[in-house]
Amino acid sequence: MNDPLSPLTRLVTEPLVRSALLEDLGLAGDLTSESVVPHDTHHTFEIVARESGTLAGLDLAALAFELVGPRATFTAYLGDGDRLRAGDAVARVSGPARSLLAAERVALNFLGHLCGVATATATLVDAVAHTRTRVCCTRKTTPGLRAVEKHAVRAGGGVNHRFGLDDAVLVKDNHLAVAGSVTEAVRRVRARVGHLVAIEVEVDSLEQLDELLRDPVHAVLLDNMSPQTTAEAVRMVGGRMVTEASGRITAETAPALAEAGVDLVSAGWITHSAPVLDLGLDATSTSG
């Protein structure tokens, strides 16, 4: 069994949650709850999965309740990375009812989106589980949410690609067009970056791959290649570079590419287009 996934630092998550709460509460606060719910009412709710999936984002949900209602208590029944079934209770939250209801939508928005990312990732991970190939994400993330979406990818069993333009080199087709050739692009990169910076080059033909193999880098991105061409590319590389396949990767297309022998398959949709997982906040008891 894998070790539990460590939560992201609060330095990362708190600004995101604060911003979302400010957007929702505005200057006047929750007019509905303050009108309907007596100020001294305490309540207990459970967060419940309405459908099956993979859990992620629990710490952001807990933080939303904490920031609005400091007297709230949040008890998690499960952890990020756990598989959910419809009807599973994920966590319990108790405290002043007004505060909990004011935080409800922000908590569930984060939780539903990040569970959706984790679930989408797990779908691909399951599809290639019979191979050694790993699933990774891309930089195609929601602006401002990259850190938490990439965390959700890990919760779903995937691994992370680079977090930004500054932590690795990825020479893509437009870079090659400007440089004029694979060889020249790699030469320019090697002259610029330090020895600890990983370099990856995207190729879309075996001819480009052959050119790259004259001066191999850390990794090669095999873009939009058929499974047959991918298998030939893996054979040509012969273990000298990490091989990554990309291009409309789905649960239906991933197995054939994985069986071709690539180290990684990468997909942007698992972060930018993952369907939200449906979770709800269900009332269990009232006091006060």
TrEMBL record:
Keyword Oxidoreductase tagged: no
The protein's Enzyme Commission number: 2.4.2.19
GO molecular function, one term: nicotinate-nucleotide diphosphorylase (carboxylating) activity
Keyword annotations: Glycosyltransferase, Pyridine nucleotide biosynthesis, Transferase
Enzyme class: transferase
Pathway: Cofactor biosynthesis; NAD(+) biosynthesis; nicotinate D-ribonucleotide from quinolinate: step 1/1
Record domain Quinolinate phosphoribosyl transferase C-terminal: where: 117-282
Reaction(s) this enzyme catalyzes, per UniProt: nicotinate beta-D-ribonucleotide + CO2 + diphosphate = quinolinate + 5-phospho-alpha-D-ribose 1-diphosphate + 2 H(+)
Cellular component terms (Gene Ontology): cytoplasm
Record flagged with keyword Transferase: yes
Domain Quinolinate phosphoribosyl transferase N-terminal: 30-115
GO BP of this protein: NAD+ biosynthetic process; quinolinate catabolic process
Function of the protein: Involved in the catabolism of quinolinic acid (QA).
Family, similarity comment: Belongs to the NadC/ModD family.
NCBIfam families: nadC
Assembly behavior: Hexamer formed by 3 homodimers.
Protein name: Nicotinate-nucleotide pyrophosphorylase [carboxylating]
Taxonomic lineage of the native organism: Bacteria, Bacillati, Actinomycetota, Actinomycetes, Micrococcales
